[in-house]
Amino acid sequence: HAIRSAAYAEVLQSVALAASSLPEPRLQTQLQELCTKVQRGSQPQVAELYALRSLFSGPPLGLSKLHASHVRALSRVLFLTPRLPAFVLRHRLRGHVLEIRHLDRALLRLGLGQLAEEELRAACYLRGLNSTHLGLAECRAWLEQWLQLSCKLQVSEVSLLANSMVLLTLNYLRAKE
Q1: Chain center to CA of 39
Q2: Residue spans per domain, the chain
Q3: Where in this chain does the record put each Letm1 RBD domain (predicted)?
């Protein structure tokens, strides 16, 4: 998890940098405020992330338009080899995030109450949360937030889901430590 956590700051910095190049001033301000909020240690709400979903479909934050350094950092978050060409990393990243999205929909149908403790913790870990220092209720609450976002997003918004592995996780861990 230390390898994954080391990439969080780089992902957040890449999102903040991309925010400055957005053409829509209102959305640019919203994303910059979200990044500042996360950088200062606050936990974003699912509604805040969902409101910005259109930014993650096209340039500069759509998965196919992300800078190579951003894709490499996201690859480290998902434990994918970051030493491949950017186009290969984008393809692998997209596949892994879509698989998580598919699992999220199945998990929502099954219900979190059906998961054993080990399964619940594994589900959180797969999505970026190291729940070893959290109680089951906290882990379940975080996973419910994640599912709220994941199950609303379209395939074209897969970049938001990948970046949310950092945005929803970073300060959740800090707040609980």
Answers
A1: 15
A2: 1-175
A3: 1-177
